[in-house]
Amino acid sequence: MEISRFNLSPKSHAQMVTNEQCIETVSGALQARYGELRNAAKRVSRSRGWTVKAFTNWLYGKNAPRMHDLIVLMADDPALESRIKEMVQETRECLHLQQYRQ
């Protein structure tokens, strides 16, 4: 991100990643990977030791997985891992900009 007068002005508010964005990211990645798979929730949850309800909630964006489950999902899906890393970098830049303003 290029630092300019625009994104350093008090009127400019760099957006931090929200919980809703995290849920949408995980849900989108799971749907892309498992959306066409018949009985995906049952198959994946059984192979990973999760409940079908938990995986279904992640798949349809009702809530986000716990940290250790997210790590397993990231290890299993390089696209999800890449997107999470991008979100971490965006957050790091926002924190840096906030620190710079003070």
Quick take:
The chain has 102 residues and is mainly alpha-helical.
Task: Walk me through this protein's architecture.
By secondary structure, this protein is mostly helical. The chain is 70% helix and 0% strand. Helix 2 runs antiparallel to helix 6 and helix 3 crosses helix 4. The chain is elongated and about 50 Å long. The relative contact order is 0.17.
Which percent range describes the beta-strand content?
under 5%
Characterize the largest beta sheet: strand count, sense, and whether it forms a barrel: none
Structural class: mainly alpha
Q: What distance lies between the first and last C-alpha atoms, to the nearest angstrom?
A: 19 Å
Contiguous runs where pLDDT drops below 50 for at least 5 residues: 1-12
Write the layout of secondary structure elements.
Layout: H1 5-8, H2 19-34, H3 40-48, H4 52-59, H5 67-76, H6 78-101
Helix pairs in contact: 2-6, 3-4, 5-6
Task: Provide key terms for this protein.
102 residues; 6 helices; elongated
